[in-house]
């Protein structure tokens, strides 16, 4: 093999080795649950809270992931089988405290397990994509955040019909909630549809009414008080501040007004 060909192959080889290392199947230890929590970039999630609880008895157990994102429970009592296990990450983000539920990796981890032979349960910190739960007022359908739009005024001449087309621009302000770098988002939607599954972060939002090829800038805000609306508003998605829930991020409401 020529030296140039070897050099070209090395990056792909190293990338494959890194992926294999992240996906290595770990052996289960009898009477325990263990695993790893990674983010969507494959980086370990340090300090994720793991909750283990018997399905039919009291006695909830807690542990946390280490610097490599790994965890292992203490020895579980096989006489209290079966068990459930959940994973969460507590985060202080732009002045708000969140407890974000982690996703099973792979698949859904909502079924109880028998610890006698030991079980491995891995998790992912997801901030977008379809989730493992049905849509509800607690979020659920998406790992990302969602926006719904309301009229600040119902008066004739000021009301924006819900079948109107609006262009929405979201610019991330700093890293997303998992520490990754966000990208500007531009969406053109019907007002009544809103936007779903936005990677969870802190965004500056602006909105434009689209009519006959022309765009009219709208006033926006996160309150229904007309005087509080401005050319832009900051969006911080609504979530849970305590662990133990089965939701994701609930729909965040934004109010729109004509100029």
Automatic annotation (TrEMBL):
Keywords: Carboxypeptidase, Hydrolase, Protease, Signal. It comes from the Bacteria. The keyword Hydrolase applies. InterPro entries: CarboxyPept-like_regulatory. GO terms for molecular function: carboxypeptidase activity. Gene3D superfamilies: Carboxypeptidase-like, regulatory domain. The keyword Ribonucleoprotein does not apply. Residues 1-27 form the signal peptide. This is Carboxypeptidase family protein. It comes from Deinococcus yavapaiensis KR-236.
